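thread: overnight batch results

M.L. [08:02]
morning all. the overnight job finished for the chain we discussed friday. pasting input first so we're all looking at the same thing
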Amino acid sequence: MKLAFSTLGVPGLPVPDVVRLAVTHGYHGVELRTHPEEPVHPGLDPDERSRVAAEFKAQGIEILGLAGYARVAEPGADEPVLTAVRDLLDLAHDLGAPFVRVFPGARPGQPPEEADALAARRLGTAAEYAAGVGVRILLETHDSHPTGADALRVLGAVGHRCVGSLWDVMHTWLGGEQPQETYAALSPYLGYVQVKDIASADDTTPLPLGAGVLPLTECVEVLSRHGWEGWLCWEYEKRWYEAAPPLPELLGPGRDHLTRLLTESA
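M.L. [08:03]
and the structure it wrote out:
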């Protein structure tokens, strides 16, 4: 497995500094939070996109994926959602990123069957565009669909190779799902895995990897046992928790912790 970190942990950090962190601390790739307040977003012009791609390529660091904010189960018209997804796919293609992340995003009180059908329809439509640019759309286990079983209801209905899953280990744990259950549901669709750690279900302030309650050991063991060889991406939610310790000083120990888990599970 290869290791990455998300720029959600270093809000607003310029691209050269992000690349430098990855090189310095031994990460193979970076997940780019794709938002207007960040250096990388769909508003970049072609020259800016080329410069971002060149920064990563020059140092041998991969752009794992773009973490976008399209919500595919959100009520309303399809076209604004599809436009947001297509914009992400175009940016990923230009940067050489294999994945884009989308959220489920159903509203409270929205019937699950309606939300599932809405998400599946939009993802099925976007899948053809994704195939054309050579990028996969990953539905994250998040918000209205926190578990692998929830995501599977949508992914199974789509049934397209360019639509897969992003396993966020915090949300599946909060949803009461065991790692083996999540893997069983998502394995045919799995793009990559977001790891993190927190103190408890009531306190989701980010912690250094291994310092909290999330079942990281079990997750890595399940992945290793099944011979999965994808990415583990550390999503440290500094952007939402300003008082959390800075990520750069934690990256080295975090890499060591993940490497130790991989070695022990081999």
